[in-house]
Amino acid sequence: MNEHIQKLIQDLKNKDVEVRKFATAHIAIYDKEAKEAVPGLIVALRDSNWDVRNSAASSIGHIGPEAKEAVPYLIELLNADRDIRITAVLSLGHI
Q1: What 3 state SS string does the chain have?
Q2: How many angstroms separate the CA atoms of 77 and 91, rounded?
Q3: Rounded to an integer, what distance in angstroms lies between the CA atom of residue 63 and that of residue 36?
Q4: CB-based contact 66:32 (threshold 8 Å)
Q5: Are 36 and 67 in contact (CB under 8 A)?
Q6: CATH homologous superfamily of domain 3-94?
Q7: Rounded to 5 degrees, what angle do the CA atoms 19, 56, 78 make?
Q8: For the chain, what percent of residues have pLDDT higher than 90?
Q9: What letter would DSSP give residue 7?
Q10: Is the pTM of this model over 0.90?
C-alpha cells in the first residue's frame, strides 16, 4: 500500500478535526488505489464534523466500485442534510 494512503488512513482517527478533514478530502486523490481506506471512511461518515462526513462520502465515490461495502452507509446519508445527500447520491452513482 502507498505510504501516503497509509498516513491518510491513520489521520482519519486523529483527534484534530482539521487533520481528519484533510485526510478525508485527500484520499479522493488516489481513487481506486485507496480502497484500503474504505473502512476508515465508513467510520468518518458518522464523524461529528459536517466537512469530514461530506468529504468521506465524496472520497468513497472516487474509489468507485472497490468501495461497494460502503453502499449501506451512503444510503443512510440519504436522510441527512441536502448537501450530504447530494454527495451520497453522486458517490453511489460511481459505485
Answers
A1: CCHHHHHHHHHCCCCCHHHHHHHHHHHHHHHHHHHHHHHHHHHHCCCCCHHHHHHHHHHHHHHHHHHHHHHHHHHHHHHCCHHHHHHHHHHHHHC
A2: 11
A3: 10
A4: yes
A5: no
A6: Leucine-rich Repeat Variant (1.25.10.10)
A7: 140
A8: 98
A9: H
A10: yes
